[in-house]
Design a protein that fits this description.
single chain, alpha+beta, Protein Transport Mog1p, Chain A, 3 domains
């Protein structure tokens, strides 16, 4: 090889080495300092809107940890901004969307560590790259979605810090999972009337309550399966005549049993399937907050309006009647009854029903249950009796069937009145006050008990039909029971009188 060719060869090699040296990290640069990370604050703007911490200032990566030959260099990713995402769920889920970059083509995300510190989440994103790698000197962007463990956290404002970039989010309520049905804090208030003229009705076996006009009465309560249904009750308006089957407004509620996975539309379709040729009207509404469908035009003894709904896979079926224009005299009662019941209908929480059922006697064949939630007592009574509650007067009356067709028919009746606080009076003093107005009447006093509480029964007090009265005090409150007629002049009522007295005395329970 000639000298000239050797010189050119060496020159080419030296040039190549110089080019390679220029590509090495830090080539041609002196020592530099890494500035402190800049911070940007994000503020939550909505329950499901991202919260941004965009800032024009770029946060450089932290100083890398030196490494020996064959090792990796550990550093921190540069975070440009974060978005805090609050997902529409309960318990709430919170994710942090992080955007940033790493310093060269050889660097990659290593670990993401989240550490809760009080009301803050400290998130560290580290990077790694081979220590001796020859890398392209370009910035490489990244985007990471990081879930935060917010389950069980109390309501409040929380801070998120991701490699020095911060944001905040707020939990409006305690973020605790509801593993059980929500407990109604005060189930009494859901159905106790706030307007005069209405009374409450609680059907614990059926799982609902509502308000009804107190001039109406409750009847036909069958708490056990009858003809395949699980629970039947009815509300009746004042009779318009004195016949055996008087014209009157009525509303029945049937708990029909499981829907078996059927939708509401399927349940209604099946109910009206045999009346396909009739001009039925279907409309949508709600009952107790649940979707419901109303059907007008179904046949019956009189025209009627029917409603179907499903709650906890149980079908509920309401029917109000008569809606036929022929019976216009009862139309006001029909509409008042329908509006009162459907407007106040509430499904009872399982926890409440369980507490009442555990304390109160169960109904059964010819035994209808009654729970007076306002005053904390319950009982069962003969199913062929009707029930009327005058809420404003704290009076509940159980009435047997009328035994004649007069304006004031003979019938057995048991009235329960909660008279208010006894104050400092003893039971004996209370009874003495009750009979003091009749000094010339021979009144018989008999000591007994009512649900284990001392009670006194009075016989012989004057009245149109004679009465038996009982007084007791529970939790400082006076309870007064009156049974009529007990006069021997009304033997036709004797059987009903004995039946209701024995059943109520045996089952009466103070449940709270």
């Amino acid at each position: 090889m000639s000298f000239t060719r050797k010189f050119n060869y060496l020159a080419a090699v030296v040039g190549l080495l110089l080019i390679l040296a220029a590509c090495m990290p830090g080539a041609g640069q002196g020592p530099t300092e890494t500035p402190a990370p800049a911070q940007a604050t994000a503020t939550q703007v909505g329950a499901d809107e991202p919260v941004s911490s965009d800032d024009p200032t770029v946060t450089p990566a932290a100083t890398e940890t030196p490494a020996g030959e064959g090792e990796v260099i550990i550093g921190q990713a540069t975070v440009e901004n974060i978005d805090i995402l609050i997902l529409e769920s309960f318990p709430v889920q919170v994710h942090v969307l992080v955007r940033g970059y790493v310093g060269d083509g050889c660097t990659e995300i290593d670990e993401i560590q989240t550490t809760p510190e009080g009301n803050a989440f400290m998130v560290t994103i580290t990077t790694k790259r081979p220590a001796e790698a020859v890398c392209t000197q370009i910035l490489v962007g990244f985007e990471e979605t990081i879930p935060l463990d917010v389950a069980g956290l109390p309501a409040g404002t929380y801070t998120v810090n991701v490699n020095g970039v911060t944001g905040t989010f707020e939990l409006a309520v305690d973020n605790v999972a509801q593993t059980e049905e929500p407990i109604m804090v005060d189930p009494v208030s859901e159905c106790l009337p706030t307007e005069a003229g209405l009374s409450p009705y609680f059907n614990v076996d059926g799982g609902y309550c509502f308000q009804y006009p107190n001039r109406f009465r409750i009847g036909d309560v069958f708490p056990e399966p009858q003809s395949g249904e699980e629970n039947i009750m009815a509300v009746y308006g004042p009779p318009q005549d004195a016949s055996l089957e008087p014209l009157q407004a009525g509303l029945s509620i049937v708990r029909q049993g499981p829907a078996g996975g059927r939708s509401l539309v399927e349940v209604v379709d099946q109910a009206i399937s045999e009346f396909a040729d009739l001009p039925l009207t279907r409309s949508q509404t709600t009952l107790g907050g649940q979707p419901a469908e109303v059907i007008d035009g179904l046949p019956g003894r009189t025209a009627n309006r029917q409603l179907f709904t499903i709650y906890n896979d149980i079908v509920y079926h309401l029917t109000v009647y008569p809606t036929d224009p022929t019976f216009s005299v009862v139309k006001p009662d029909v509409e008042v009854l329908w509006e009162a019941v459907t407007g106040t209908f509430t499904f009872l929480p399982a926890s409440f029903m369980e507490s009442v059922s555990a304390a109160c006697p169960a109904g059964g064949e010819q035994r209808s249950p009654y729970a007076n939630v306002a005053h904390g007592y319950c009982l069962v009574y003969p199913s062929y009796f009707s029930l009327n509650e005058i809420y404003e007067q704290n009076v509940t009356t159980l009435s047997g069937p009328a035994l004649d067709q007069s304006l004031e028919p003979v019938q057995a009746a048991l009235t329960i009145q909660v008279e208010g606080a006894a104050g400092d009076r003893t039971l004996a003093e209370l009874v003495a006050e009750a009979i003091s107005a009749f000094p010339d009447v021979a009144v018989t006093q008999t000591e007994t008990t009512l649900d284990g509480e001392p009670a006194i029964v009075l016989e012989g007090l004057p009245g149109r039909t004679g009465s038996r009265q009982l007084y007791t005090i529970f939790a400082g409150v006076i309870f007064h029971l009156t049974l009529t007629p007990v006069d021997e002049a009304f033997p036709q009522a004797a059987q009903d009188v004995a039946a209701v007295w024995e059943m109520v005395m045996e089952s009466f329970t103070f449940w709270r």
